[in-house]
Amino acid sequence: MNVLKNKMQRRDFLRSIAKLGLTTAFTSQFMLSANVFAQTAGAKRFIMVYYPNGCVRDKWHSYNAGALGSNSFATSPLQHLNAHLTKIVPIKNLTYNGHGGSSGHPEACRAVFSGGQEYATTFDVAIGEALGGRLTKNMHVGVWSSKAKGTEYMPFTDKNRNKIQVSDNPQQVYDALLADVVGSSSGTPDPDAARRKKVLETLHENLDLLQANTLNVKQQGKLLTHEEALNYYQNTLSGTLDIGGTGFSRPAIGMTGIDDDADAIAKAQMRNIAMAFQANITRTATFQFMGAQDESLKINFPSIRAYMGDYGSGEKLNYNETRSHVSSHNESSLFDAQTRWYNIMVAYLMDELAGRPDVTYGGTLLDNTLILVMSEVGGGNHQQENPGIYVAGGANNMIRSGTGIDANNTGMSNLYLDISKAFGLNWGRYGNSSGGVTGFLR
User: Fold this and answer.
1) Distances (CA, A) of 207 to 193, 218, 224, 227, 308
2) Which residue, 4, 128, 357, 390, is the most exposed by fewest CB within 10 angstroms?
3) What per-residue confidence (pLDDT) applies to 219?
């Protein structure tokens, strides 16, 4: 007992890891990774991007179905994706009706992202569980998500039916998931890495002490399971963490809470996702712009001011109307301009993925990634039909990229099911699905 008093106890270990955003059940997080990484067919990496409050649907869907050309997005807020036109699949006339749609934001968040099943595990989490990951099954990051009215306005739900609250701080995300993995370019030992190693060593010593006791068969089994999982994490931490390569750096900005910084914070979070994929610590990531019905962020950044009309300069730049939910109900050109910003950020994410090698699967990260971009409602007035949705990325050549699709009022759950098929998963259905979306898969 005197020895144990000098050791870091299990609760202290969990507190230390929790501060870094890594609290999880060891067995579910690490022990299955080797099997899922052995998959060869289909897309390899998945990103789900959420934006709040819908869009101006006529503007968003101003493209024609069929092969996309250089002018397809000329009058759409998707215009800024033009550099990646051959890796975009915009989809018209999906419906949330019968697939979780609702006229209320929190009600929509209960089921739209889980295929119409209220409070069920959302699609991003389900994909992450299926694909697995080296250090985490899914990294959730956000911009201004912490300012949501309440958890019921958060879009994503974990496998325990709890709403997921994400970190808006790019530096915190980097320190939790990437600092140990990529090492330090200056050669200075990372203090968090040293602390984690010390914690793991202490836990091993405590396990040794427990094993010296007389335990029944069930207790011995549990102890061995914890030790195996602990060994896995320690081997990863000690032996394979410094992956080498270039393009890794700690974000220069954290969550400041200053509106004018949101553009830089969003880019830093997008870059965190790209770095995490390059380091191969996860195959699944989720990004969210704020929470549903959000009014906390003024979306008036220089990149969209040319599209904001009277609100693009002078006093009106700081009017209440430049907040997303306030402007959404008017379905005005101002709201349309704001949705451009979301797509500008997705284009930046695609640039980051395209510029980084996928050491694990070959090609670039964008070649192997499938990105789903969507909101909880269709139009700004809570319509459930024809939401602003597109799929992006190379997806390992599993989808008909470069083609606009008319889904003919197919339910959203059918798209989820087709995306799972793009990853080679043998799901018979997802949520309220009844088939697929014609023309989406190759």
Assistant:
1) 21, 15, 9, 7, 61
2) 4
3) 78
Output the pLDDT for position 236.
56
Torsion of CA 212, 217, 222, 227, to 10 degrees: 40
DSSP symbol at 80: G
For residues 52 and 159, the answer to whether their CB atoms sit within 8 Å is no
Strand partners, 441: 399
- Bridge partners of residue 391, in order along the sequence: 89, 372
The H or E element that residue 49 is part of is strand 45-50
Give residue 419's identity as a one-letter amino acid code. Answer: I
List of residues 6+ apart from 145 with CB closer than 8 A: 154, 165, 166, 168, 288, 289, 290, 291
Query: From the CB of residue 25, how many other CB atoms can be counted at a distance below 10 Å?
Result: 9
**CA 176, 179, 182 angle in degrees (round to 5)?**
135
Residue 324 tokens, joined:
């997303």
* Residue 197, SS3 per DSSP: helix
Assess contact for 285 and 178: CB atoms under 8 A.
no
SS3 167: strand
Model confidence pTM above 0.90: no
Q: Which of 249, 246, 241 lies closest to 272 in space, CA to CA?
A: 249
Kindly give the parts of the chain with pLDDT less than 50.
1-39, 186-187, 189, 239-241
- The Cα 134–Cα 178 span in angstroms is 12
> Which pair of tokens denotes residue 351?
């640039």
Question: What is the identity of the amino acid at 55?
Answer: C
> Can you read off the two tokens belonging to residue 182?
């990529």
What CA–CA distances, in Å, run from 71 to 57, 79, 336, 389, 407? 18, 9, 18, 19, 22
Q: What is the pLDDT of residue 184?
A: 54
Report yes or no: 123 and 416 within 8 Å, Cβ to Cβ: yes
